[in-house]
Structures are given as C-alpha cells and as structure tokens.
C-alpha cells in the first residue's frame, strides 16, 4: 500500500511543495503508525521551507510542526496507546502527510468529543501561549500586557488565555483585524500608523508588565521601551539564521545585566520539548479540557485538505490570515 506526503523539495516559494508517494510499512518496535486527521500551517513551516531559520530540517523534508490523528497500527512494546485512539504530537516536521510514524513517548491522548481541526491548533500555538503566560512569567490577574503580532495563531491564543487569566491586554495588528482583537478582549493598536510605545505610555505612563513579541527585529527593542521597571519581554519569534540567534542571545544577556530592572526571556516550544517533554505532556490535556468546556475557541481562518498544503502556505504568506490555517482530512472541512 501507498500513502502520500507533501515535501519541500528545495528552498523557495510554496511552488517547491510537491506531492510524493511512500510505501506504507508496519511500525517498528516502540513505534506507532498514525493516520493524520489534521495539522497546522505555521510560520516555522514557512521559515524552514525558505531556509531562513536555525536548525531547519535538511531538504527534502515534510513540513508540519504538529499532528492530530488516529492510531492505525502499533509496534512491539507499545502499551500506552491502542489502535483507534486519537492522539496528538509535537513533531517539528512531518505533518503534511496522510500517515506518520512516531515513537510512543511523543503521544498525548485526545478526547473523542473534540473537533480535530480545532484541537490541532492547541498542540503548538496554545501550548506556546499557555507556557509563556503561566510557566515563563507566571502572570496574575490585573497584569498589563502587550502582544506584538496579536492576530496570528499564537497571538490569538495569547489573547484568549490572557482573557481567562483576567489580564489587561493590548495587541498590535493591521486595522482590518482590529475587530477580532477587540472581541478577544484586547485594545488594538495599528502598527502601520501608530507607535505602540507612545500609545502604551499615554495610557500606562509607568509602562506595562509584560510584552510578548512574535515578530522579532526592532519590535523587541521597542517592546522593551514599553515595559515598566521590573517588566519582562518574552520573545517567541524564531531566529532567522545563526547570526540572528547569537545576536539575540547577546541582547538577552545584556538587557538582563542592565540596572533598569527589565528582563528578556526567550521561548521556543521545540527546544523546551527536546529538553523536557513533561511540561508539554502536562499542559496539552489542560488545554483540551478548556476547549471541551468551551472556555477557548480557536480562530481558524481556513481549512484545506492535507495535500493542498501549497495553497495553504500561499494564504498564510499573504499576511491576510487571522488565527490559524489548518490542513485536514476532506471530510473535516
């Protein structure tokens, strides 16, 4: 039997994404074969495809940072999941495919009641938002925060989870997206025509408690200027190349040494997952429960069949997306 995947054949535009056929094999010992029901199209996928990000997979590769699917077969020694179970995993790549093979240690059970297209957005974007809020800086009710890039997948997750935590929120986005930010509980700032540092200091003269920066570059410098003394900037934009990574680490060290009371933290879901899976394994079920209870509702801009990943990438790169772009089985659209 065969199955299909979408591979990035070389660096470039979405046109380098091609459909290939693979042999469907039996899983190895400790391995699980999963029929993929959904994955997301994210900025990291695009950065990997363009060859812009540090630690990108070698070409050719199958993009797709997270998956939700049904266990199709299990290898010897697998006891934590069974055929027919719905599972989720943070993969880094491999999600643009009809099937994937993963080690049993990466799998988290998914409640059968959840919509696959909604639940898959929790695996990376909502886990990232939850961990930044509750593990990296441990927000408390009443804290004042700014989200730079608030209309994206992580940004909208930060807004929803921040609203649950009773935060006072500001978010940057283009004007066409402001209504969504307002609905999610944030005061929107137009980054095209407004200087968000001036806007923040007009309404919060002493500055704010936390800035979550998903854009990088000079946005981080300006984000620091919006902070109060003792405030923290959390950067989660992926580093574009080794030089940018080293520069970012140097900046982090310098700011944290300066006597202005401000600090910088860097967040990367994949790096943290490689160091310790336990926080991911603990936090994802919490988010599944919030979704099940209707306390969060992922913003999905559009859904595409998995094998139409190139079209989905084009849409995300257009800059017109609010929330998430999801690849799914045709019957889930």
CATH third-tier fold name of the largest domain: Quinone Oxidoreductase, Chain A, domain 1
Radius of gyration: 20 Å
What is the level-2 CATH architecture name of the largest domain? Alpha-Beta Complex
Low-confidence segments, given as residue ranges, are none
Number of strands: 15
Overall mean confidence score, pLDDT? 93
Q: Helix and strand layout, with pairings?
A:
Layout: E1 2-8, E2 17-23, E3 31-41, H1 43-50, E4 66-74, E5 86-90, E6 99-103, E7 108-109, H2 116-136, E8 144-148, H3 153-164, E9 168-173, H4 178-183, E10 186-190, H5 196-203, E11 208-213, H6 218-226, E12 227-235, H7 242-257, E13 263-266, H8 269-275, H9 278-292, E14 300-305, H10 309-317, E15 324-328
Parallel strand pairs: 8-9, 8-11, 9-10, 11-12, 12-13, 14-15
Antiparallel strand pairs: 1-2, 3-4, 3-6, 3-15, 4-5, 5-7
Q: Any key phrases for this structure?
A:
333 residues, alpha/beta, Quinone Oxidoreductase, Chain A, domain 1, Rossmann fold, 2 domains, seven-stranded mixed beta sheet, six-stranded parallel beta sheet, 10 helices, globular
């Amino acid at each position: 039997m065969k199955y299909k995947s979408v591979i990035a054949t070389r660096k470039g535009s979405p046109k380098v994404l091609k459909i290939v056929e693979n042999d469907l094999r039996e899983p190895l010992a400790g391995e699980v074969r999963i029929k993929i029901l959904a994955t997301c199209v994210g900025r990291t996928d695009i950065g990997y495809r363009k060859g812009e990000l540090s630690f990108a997979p070698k070409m050719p590769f199958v993009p797709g940072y997270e998956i939700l699917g049904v266990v199709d077969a299990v290898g010897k020694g697998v006891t934590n999941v069974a055929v027919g179970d719905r599972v989720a995993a943070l993969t880094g790549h491999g999600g643009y495919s009809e099937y994937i093979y993963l080690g049993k240690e990466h799998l988290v059970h998914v409640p059968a009641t959840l919509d696959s297209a909604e639940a898959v957005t929790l695996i990376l974007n909502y886990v990232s938002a939850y961990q930044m809020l509750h593990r990296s800086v441990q927000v408390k009710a009443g804290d004042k925060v700014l989200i730079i890039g608030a209309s994206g997948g992580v940004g909208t997750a930060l807004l929803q989870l921040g609203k649950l935590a009773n935060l006072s929120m500001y978010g940057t986005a283009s004007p066409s997206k402001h209504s969504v930010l307002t609905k999610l509980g944030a005061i929107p700032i137009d980054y095209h025509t407004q200087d968000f540092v001036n806007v923040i200091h007009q309404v919060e003269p002493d500055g704010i408690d936390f800035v979550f920066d998903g854009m990088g570059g000079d946005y981080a410098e300006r984000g620091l200027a919006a902070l109060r003394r003792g405030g923290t900037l959390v950067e989660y934009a992926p580093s574009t190349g080794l030089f940018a990574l080293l520069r970012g680490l140097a900046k982090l060290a310098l700011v944290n040494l300066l006597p202005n009371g401000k600090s910088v933290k860097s967040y990367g879901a994949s790096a943290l997952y490689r160091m310790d899976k336990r926080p991911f394994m603990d936090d994802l079920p919490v988010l599944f429960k919030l979704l099940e209870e209707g306390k969060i509702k992922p913003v999905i801009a559009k859904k595409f069949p998995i094998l139409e990943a190139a079209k989905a990438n084009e849409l995300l790169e257009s800059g017109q997306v609010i929330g998430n772009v999801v690849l799914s089985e045709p019957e889930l659209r």
